[in-house]
Amino acid sequence: MKETELKKLLDSMTLEEKLCQMTQCEPLKADEEKSLGVNPDIKTKGLTEKQYYSVGSMIVYVPKAADLRRVQKEHLKRDPHKIPLLFMSDVLHGKETVFPIPLAMGCSFNTELLKECYEVSAEECAASGVHTVFAPAIDLSRDARWGRSMESFGEDPCLSSRMAGAAVTGFQGNGDTIDENHVSCCAKHYLGYGAVTGGRDYNCAEISDNELYNYYLPSFKAAVENNVSMIMTSFNTLNGVPMTVNEHANRQILRGDLGFDGVLISDYNSLGECENHGISSSSEKLAELGIKATLDIEMMNTLILNNGEKSVKGGAVDEEYIDSAVLRILRLKNKLGLFEDPFKGLSEEKEESFFNNLKSREKSREIAEQSAVLLKNSGVLPLKSFEKIWLCGPLSVSEEVGGEWAFSMQKPYNVSLFEGISNIIGKENIILSKTDKIYRIEDIDSKEKEDIPYPESADEFENCKTCIIAVGEHMGDTGEASSKTNIRLTKNQAELVKKVKQSGKKTVVIVFSGRPLDISDIEPYSDALIYAWYLGCESGNALARLIFGLSNPSGKLAMSLPRCVGQCPIYYNHLNTGRPYNKTNRFSCGYTDCENEPLFSFGFGLSYTEFRYEDISVNKNEIKIKVKNTGDFDGFETIQLYVSLKDTSVSQPVKALKDFKKIFLKSGEEKEITFKINKDMFSFYKNKVKTLEKCSAVLFLRAQSGEFIKISDFEVCL
Ligand code: GLC
Q: How far is residue 280's CA from residue 272's CA, in Å, rounded to a whole number?
């Protein structure tokens, strides 16, 4: 439809119909719909029947093509203007094919592969009739207490921004329109949600402009630069103002500074919750504030629908605000081609073909192998596939390893670690301890008392040299509303690792989690340590291939692992302070009972092979590096370029990631890579303005050991 036709359609709508477009509810189930016909006055979802058949969009938790076809058909029959519905769904890391959690995929440092994964998700969603996914979640996340860290791409603005751009392109494709194999996506949660005080979900966030512009905003800037169609406001207040009614953050920063002209949607009743925030007990006032903050769609409440007319008629809100909002919604529907074909992309048979699709599962396994992080390996891994192993721990047989926010898959089937290892060495070569399922946090008592059974000693047990121990947190204890003050493993899991080590076995510890856990009490008893996060539907196969050397670990931490919860929030790109930590000087910026550095830092991850950086040359335009695989294994290496600035008017982080490249090298192979040097690498936001100052810079690479290798001093001139 042409823009002129969209405007004509808008002009033909009543104010109530426009307000319906700004309202999102859940669809009626088939039987509810039937009863609606019988009892037309049934209030559905707080709407009249007429309003229900005029809403602009619906949120669908487990989208099925046949259901969405039914709902769309009925809607088009009843909507006076035949405006197609938008169906939106939470598909954060996969629909039918579940990929690793985003925090794990961030550790892959492979933006191209992430894009390919989201292309798979987009096709699966489109076939089921979904038009918009509530993803990617691009909140910068530094606090392991916050359960939603799992949804983010971690603590660094450069990595988060690159991942955000890749995710948006994977979901939406590249063009101005969105074809039948792609969906529009909704970057979330704008803004500062990862900085909630105390790591407590839904809490307030107090963020200075310096932090906001240099750390929390860049990923949203990247999403907007990649034409993200929609952005979701977050539950938190930002410096005292709830984001859903934050006119400054939404109108001045997002739409003004960043130039976002897409659809702004609230989070689940986050407009209504502004009453709890103490903004107003008047629904009319909240509706007015939401509209003025350029909110376009209200998710799961009807404040705007029920009060918008009064606000306009009473002069509190200019109808122009409503028209702009509705036009943005109509433009999105137009970008999706829904006016020409409201069922575009929807296909029951295609949907069926995605159930347990082997090619898609292969893609999930590929990124899973690149997302797990090898943190320690004292010559244990890879194991020989002919040796018998002992497998124990509460997550050894669990299929609950796909990761939270994956409820849209209709055939829950994740490969457990036990199954994955069996696929390589055969069940007969595994001594499996009787292992009970891991309990959720509310069972903490039983979990603490619960002794994870230890295998009865048997001959073959005595003979096997190596024990793989699968520990971690329950998947259900991560994600939304999952903040924790205790991020340690349960005592019985820590004791199990210690006991196995003291039995003389080699210990290969696999940690499943949705956040950085405090693993300081098991690290000393781990001969090898793989941080597995939750790796999606192919978890077990990916981990088994890494353990037995059919694949070479290449993940690098996207979020630092703290030594203890007392260090949270912790991140590598901190300021130097006036008294940098000095172990020998109490009067320095540190703790009396713990060192400052995390147990494992952002950007760290080992491989089975060694990579050497040689012939490093730097001129004012570029850096060239020869990278050689000097070990016996083929593998991926992520070359990370960091910058440290000095002599600046605003204190800068001790180091900041500015670029990275992931390359594959066969054993003995060498490649030259080039990083372009540009002003952006030395710029920073000062008083909300991107600033370049004459200053001195130092360029670093990151060695495999985690050490920073200084490669050049660099005078930054204007
Ligand atoms: C939830 C989440 C948001 C999600 C939305 C719809 O509360 O905060 O991430 O997309 O509601 O389920």
A: 10
